Every structure is written in structure tokens, then in C-alpha cells.
Amino acid sequence: MRNAKxxxxxxxASNTEPIIRTMLEAGVNAVRINMSHGTHSEHExxxxxxxxxxxxxxxxLAILVDLSGPKIRxxxxxxxxxxxxSEGSPFTITTREVDGTNEIVGTNFSxxxxxxxxxxxxxxxxxxxxxxxxxxxETDVNCTVVVGGELKERKGINLPATKLPIPSMTEKDHIDLxxxxxxxxxxxxxxxxxxxxxxxxxxELIKKLNTREMGRALLVAKIEKAEAIENxxxxxxxxxxVMVARGDLGVETSVELVPVYQKRIxxxxxxxxxxxxxxxxxxxxxxxxxxxxxxxASDVANAVWDGTDAVMxxxxxxxxxxxxxTVRTMAQIIDAAETIRPDQLKKPVKYSLPPSxxxxxxxxKAAAYAAKETMTEKIAVYTESGLMARRLSSFxxxxxxxxxxxxxxxxxxxxxxxxxxxxxxxxxxxxxxxLKIGERTLLEAGVVSAGETLIMxxxxxxxxxxxxxxxxxxxxxxxxxxxxxxxxxxEIEEN
Length: 495
Known about the structure:
Blueprint: E1 5-9, H1 17-26, E2 30-34, H2 40-57, E3 62-66, E4 83-85, E5 90-94, E6 104-106, H3 112-115, E7 121-124, E8 129-136, E9 140-147, E10 149-151, E11 157-158, H4 171-182, E12 187-190, H5 196-209, E13 218-223, H6 226-230, H7 232-238, E14 241-245, H8 246-252, H9 258-271, E15 275-279, H10 294-306, E16 310-313, H11 315-318, H12 323-340, H13 342-345, H14 359-373, E17 378-382, H15 387-393, E18 400-405, H16 408-413, E19 420-424, H17 431-445, E20 453-458, E21 469-474, E22 482-484, H18 486-494
Parallel strand pairs: 1-2, 1-16, 2-3, 3-12, 5-6, 12-13, 13-14, 14-15, 15-16, 17-18, 17-20, 18-19
Antiparallel strand pairs: 4-10, 5-9, 7-8, 7-11, 8-9, 20-21, 21-22
Helix pairs in contact: 1-2, 1-12, 5-7, 10-12, 14-18
């Protein structure tokens, strides 16, 4: 089992059940639905196809819906045809309704003339084209082309170093979020997060719309603005996980700082018990080629060594020519990275963290320490919502972690989390039966064998005596070697 997981974007090249099934077989653990494109009915069918593909293989599959956010874009061009902007030529961006040409184009952002000033820099199409503002009227921003090139319609507009007076969630995002919650998806990604308040608003909406008995869809804050870097610690505290959205981050800040920010974001997320996804252009050349560049292979491996929970594919699988080959290649790179440099993945377990007052942290410390002392590399964690498995994952102990749950929702959600292999088991009626059911589940899956010792642990479980416990268990026995209850693991925490 790979520790780092693969998140693949679904689109025209990959949204049918047969293709999704083949991608799952090639190594996909989770799929992304990009709300910047397509309709609700199209996306709903994609979700149906994804769930069916996972069921046919008896595998978990997490589904992430990525909200569009307040993306500023150009409008349409005459005939839908691309135009060429020449260096040094004048070019106007207007809020008026116009037919776009190589001299003028409309924008969906009505406030643009109010937020830019002469000498401001405007970037188009993820920074491929660069403009300098010369003058501004009530409706027009008149510019000079600094870096020219081809411009297609409805491309992104970036305003680096400009603070925009727009909310992180648009009216479309609210509609899309309500729809996504109705589809019972596992993760919601919030675009263009700038401050902690953006996450609080989105999380409250998710809680309000939640229909799950245990747990809820988890919020992913996309870090792609300079303001988000400035407010990183506060954002991490208010979200469930983060995404290193390197595309816009490189445009909004600078390309040379992206690797620095990537390492910082991953380190701070893991240190605060948050999952993290590394995204954008990871195998970009495989949109058109069946093979990656050497630099891309190194990029994926370095993200794995940094400790990311998942690496993401965007256009490579959504619209590229080789979606299955791309997934297979990424899986092979991860396998090699985790095999050749396992020391990079087994960072010191957080035994020495200062007491937090959280029983869950005490339990995770006790479980990791017990595994070390009993010389086992396997931990089985019983969880109803998936929270305890995520907490244990953040230790990055290198231990094989089996997430045991009675919840289909938690089963799917955990498939995106570093080092966790989830399993669904039947509902037990007592603690001892629960241990035997967990043992049988793992034996049938072939991940443990008779006579093997492993650690079994549980957080808060409804109505069962195993709650808040760590158990040293040998497969094939009727009783545990030792059961550390909550008071004992709290003592470990304090000492």
C-alpha cells in the first residue's frame, strides 16, 4: 500500500465508469470534480459513475468537489477564436459588453477599474501574458502588452499584490456547495482563501447542510493567494486540510517561491493534524505525451518526501490524451520514492509534543509508542467518523495504519489520507466481539496473518467499552495482551 495517495480530476477524458474503473486499478484513491466547468447534471452523472466503478472493484473512493471561487476571467472573443497580443501594443480590458479582439476584451469583474491604478501589473492565462496599466476610466483599463502571446477566451486574470474587495464564496459557490452536499461528497475545496474567516463561513455552511449520522464533508482550503501565505497559521486552524494550489500561487506570488511555500505549507499542515494535497502541473507534459519529463518525476517524488497526503492530477486526467497512463506513472513514481527513501517518510513520532489536553493525541502517542515497544509495524484504529485515523496519520510514523469503520462515508473519506488503508466491518455488540470482527476483517483482506501482533486502538465509540483505548493484540487469540484505558494514556501524555 502506498502512503501518499493520488487525487485525479475527472473530465471529458475520464468521466465514464469504464475509464474510472481502469484509473482506480492503476492507482487512483480519490477523484476531483471541478465546478469551474460543466453542469450539475453532468457532474452528478460523473459521481454516479465514480461510485459505481469503486463498488465494482470493492474499493473505497473519496470524492472532492472543488468550488470555482471568485475567479476573474476575460469574456468571449469574436467567433470564439484565439487572438494574438503583440509586445508593446495597446490592449484594453473593459467591463462593457464587447466582442473581444486583439485590442480589447471584456471581463466578468465589474470592479476591475476601481482596484487597479496606472503602473499596476495584470497577468492573463495563469501568467502567460503580462500587461501594464497605463490609464483607467469608469469602465476601461487601458494597458500596454509587456509579454505577448496567444489569448483564448474566458482565461483567468490575476492581479498580484492587489487586495480584492470580493468574498471568497460567490453566489455560484453557495449554489454549488448546496448541490455537492446533496450528492454526499467527501471533501469540499474552497478556492482563493485569503483569511481564516473564509474557512469559518464555508465550514458553517457544510455543517448546516450535513446529513451524515457521523462526521461530515471535510473542508480543504486552497492556498493560492499571497494573503493566504500571510495568514497561513490562522487558516490552518480553521480548516480540515489544505491544498498547495501551485498554479495561481505561482502567479499571485512568484515562481521561485512556490517550492519554498510548498514545503512550509506541508510542514505546518502536518504539524497541526491537518491533511494536505499538492496540486497543479505535476505531470503536465502527459496531457499530450505518454511519458513524463524527468523534472516532473522529481517533482512528484519531492512532494512525497515533503510528507504530502496526496498528489493531484488536473488537466492530465480531465482532458489529456493519456489519463490512465498518467495515473499509472504517478503511482510508480510514488512507489519508488517511498521504497528508495523510506527514511524520509519515517520522521520522529511526536512523543515529545507538549500536552494539548486532547485525549486523541494521548491515544495516538500511546499507540505509536506501543507499536515501537512491541516491534510491530501495524496499527488498526477503530473510528466512526475517521477523525482518529486522520490524527494518527498526521504522526507520519511510517506504521501501516488500518482504518476500521462501520461507516461507508468514513471508509471512502479515509482513502485520501496518508498511510491509511480503510476497511468497513460489521456492527459489533460488545468490545470483545469488536476486536474479533476487526481481526477477521484484516485476515480476510490478507493484511495480517495468524500469530502476528499489532496494536488496536479506538477513540470515542458509541456504547462500546473499547472507547479511548489502546490494545496490544495477537491475531488468533481471544484476549488482548494489555488494554491501556484513557486514564493510562493520559498519564503517558503528561509524562
